[in-house]
Design goal:
- This protein is an alpha/beta fold.
- The protein contains 9 helices and 7 strands, in the order ααααβαβαββαβααββ.
- β1, α5 and β2 form a beta-alpha-beta unit.
- The longest helix is centred in the N-terminal third of the chain and has 20 residues.
């Protein structure tokens, strides 16, 4: 678990550092080898390149952020900057394993004078927040990198920091889909191998220890499955 956390952190740190330097290089998601781009499922995968699931309208509609709510963005990446989270009426809190990401978000929040809560560099399976601190949370594009032991630990920790009845939007890979298979190849190629290998049923069994399923969004050949879960 620790080794995989370090691999993911280093990869995202390098991406932020490259952006700060102004590296004039194509996105790693677009400059891919032939064995990936010639895959029959690559065209379907490529239609989603550059489109962040964190900006999904279904997520905002389901979580219904409102003034007075505390929202926790788990594995936040740069959602505050690029995916409209700075416009949510709830108070924003972010957690990410990449120190470079958190530093950049701090700079952005100060520059824009955003009234956010806090930004924390660390893993979502071990967070410094009080029990029941948050009303709503989202965990998008994170669990794909980790195996079952981490997934279980993360879900327990997320439940701990959510209020009873709080809502969580969480995304997992759509194992068995061609687009998901290509996505795993791409992530491995750019240095972030995806270790998630749970079926939807297996994930739901883990989640059911702490959450009830409110909604489930899944398309036949989609890259990911989106759940809206309610904390028990």
């Amino acid at each position: 678990m620790d080794r995989q956390l370090a691999v993911v952190a280093a990869s995202y740190d390098a991406a932020i550092e490259g952006g700060r330097r102004g590296d004039d290089e194509p996105s790693p998601y677009e400059d891919l080898p032939d064995y990936i781009t010639s895959d029959p499922d690559y065209p379907a995968y490529a239609t989603g390149i550059g489109v962040s699931a964190s900006a999904n309208d279904d997520i905002r509609e389901a979580l219904a952020p409102a003034a007075g709510m505390k929202f926790l963005d788990l594995g936040c990446a740069l959602n505050l900057m690029f995916n409209g989270h700075d416009q949510w009426p709830s108070t924003y809190y972010g957690v990410d394993i990449s120190a470079q990401t958190i530093d950049l978000l701090h700079e952005f929040a100060v520059q824009k004078q955003l009234p956010i809560g806090s930004l924390h560099c660390g893993s979502i399976h071990d967070m410094p927040f009080d029990d029941g601190a948050f009303d709503i949370a989202a965990c998008i594009g994170v669990l794909e990198y980790f195996a079952a032991d981490f997934v279980r630990a993360a879900m327990v920790e997320i439940r701990r920091v959510l209020k009873p009845g709080g809502l969580l939007a969480v995304e997992i890979p759509h194992i068995g889909s061609g687009v998901c298979r290509v996505a795993k190849m791409v992530e491995a190629h750019i240095g972030r191998p995806g270790l998630f290998n749970l079926s939807q049923q297996d994930f739901e069994t883990i989640a059911s220890e702490s959450f009830a399923v409110e909604k489930k969004y899944v398309a036949p050949n989609s890259e990911a499955v989106l759940y809206i879960l309610r904390a028990k």
